[in-house]
Amino acid sequence: MSQMPVISEHYSLHDKNTLRLASCAEYFATFTSSDELAELIRWAEQKSLAIRVLGGGSNVLMPEFVPGLVIQSKDETVSVVSEDESSVVIDVAAGKCWHDWVVESIQYGHGLENLALIPGSVGASPVQNIGAYGVEVSDLLVSVTGFNIAEQRMLTIEKADCDFSYRDSVFKNRLKNNFVICSVRFRLNKFFSPNLEYAPLNTLDKNTLTAQELTRFVAAVRSAKLPDPANIPNAGSFFKNPIISSQKAETLKLAHPSLPLYPSGPDSADVKVAAGWLIEHCGFKGKVFGPVAMYEKQALVLTTDGKALLSDVTKLKESVQEVVAQTFDIHLEPEPQLFTS
Hints:
Largest sheet: 5 strands, antiparallel
Shape: globular
Helix content: 10-25%
Distance between the termini: 32 Å
Number of strands: 20
Number of helices: 7
Structural class: alpha+beta
């Protein structure tokens, strides 16, 4: 039997969430193996405690108190599973920093370059089905392995059973709070064929571009418009880009010619609207509301001064939603999820 990891009581989560919301966990522990994870789950069940899984803390809204046991993977193992002439399959542990993995992935293969500098951990990436510039993590994902709490066993869920859609997955729905992701399996392409469909990537020369150059370019673009959470607390893009009917999009485009519209998917007639543009045109860009604000360089980003509470964020979120709905008849859905829900 493995040694029980250290469990801390009344543990501050202020530095464990990128919005730096004041929060305290009833109990907190980290794990580096499936055996340690099993020990923690066993301990929590003996005490009838709920289990909450924390990734990089970049996509959560922390309440002031989190009951139960909060656990976080610190395993950063990367291992090659198999390869053929065109691709390589790799297992990456949940505790690995996402951006570090994107940079490292170029040593093995390609496909993740557009997802550079997205904050968070590898284990959290399939939960939200993170994406940027025309690429989603589900495009390269093979399967997800983790511990099913209800069934008390390790389980591998194939991509087809992950119910992936835009910023959504089975891990946010049916398996929420019942599945602890331990590793993610990726299939990377050995041949570099960049997706440059979205601006400003479409200014790059596909014929001379290298994977390293694309990764650095994406990181530079994100750095220019998104603040570093280490300096300005934020959760990245706070709202999802809403998907509306093509008819509604045409009507809005006639009234607002500068409104950015994107295809919502290869098999859909619906249209994706730039949420940041909607928020900016409702006057929220750069506006400060006590300890919270909508970022001056990108209206889609909600920032804090490091001293905010969940209630401060909720108030601004609801205000933005209300004005956008009144102005454009579009409902904005937040990307970060309430940690205890």
